[in-house]
Amino acid sequence: MNDPGWLTSLIRQDGGRRLPPERAARRVSAFAYGNILVLSVVVVSDTHSVEERLAAWLVLGTTVSTFAAHIFAEWLSHGVTARREGEGEGPQKPLDMRAVLRDAVPIITSGTLPFIILFVGSFDVIGLFDPPGAQLCAAGVIIFRIAVLGLVVERLQSKDVSWRTIASGVVVAVVATIITIIKVVLTH
Fold first, then answer.
1. In angstroms, rounded to a whole number, what is the distance separating the alpha carbons of residues 158 and 154?
2. pTM for this model (two decimals)
3. What are the structural domain ranges in the chain?
4. How far is the C-alpha of 41 from the C-alpha of 58, rounded, in Å?
5. Which site among 62, 116, 151, 176 is 20 to 30 Å from 42 CA-CA?
6. Using an 8 Å Cβ cutoff, are 38 and 67 in contact?
7. 27-42 pLDDT tens trace
8. What ranges make up the beta strands (E) of the chain?
């Protein structure tokens, strides 16, 4: 079976440039846990919390606090690995906050559309977006994002998309769903 080259051209926006592996890894990490945390909030929400807009605000709060925690963690970890006077190992450069902020953007994108969906769904003005429908739609968006994680990785590595990547995306979505269910069962 041929590789889906048409899909590679759709997801490649960077002209073939490659991010350094450590930055690509930070983006993938932010993408993965941002989506899983937002999915956890969406899953534990009930119809009443969607109707009262609480679910939307919890998604927004989770998104913003996770973004802030990620930036803080990057700052702390850089301090641990930075080279000290007299040491021969560790990064010499100061922390590039612009790169850290850019690499954390997948966290913000994880919660943006689910927030909008839940917020609009709380008004019950569109038939598909009644509160239960909005919750299902928000969860579906996040699970889809998790499923395309392999495509994100290949884009960051400037590789061609393969059918194996697409199949692994389905597996990743299933694993992420299981992790979310475990989180919900253990913490709620």
1. 6
2. 0.77
3. 21-81+94-187
4. 7
5. 151
6. no
7. 889 998 899 999 989 9
8. none
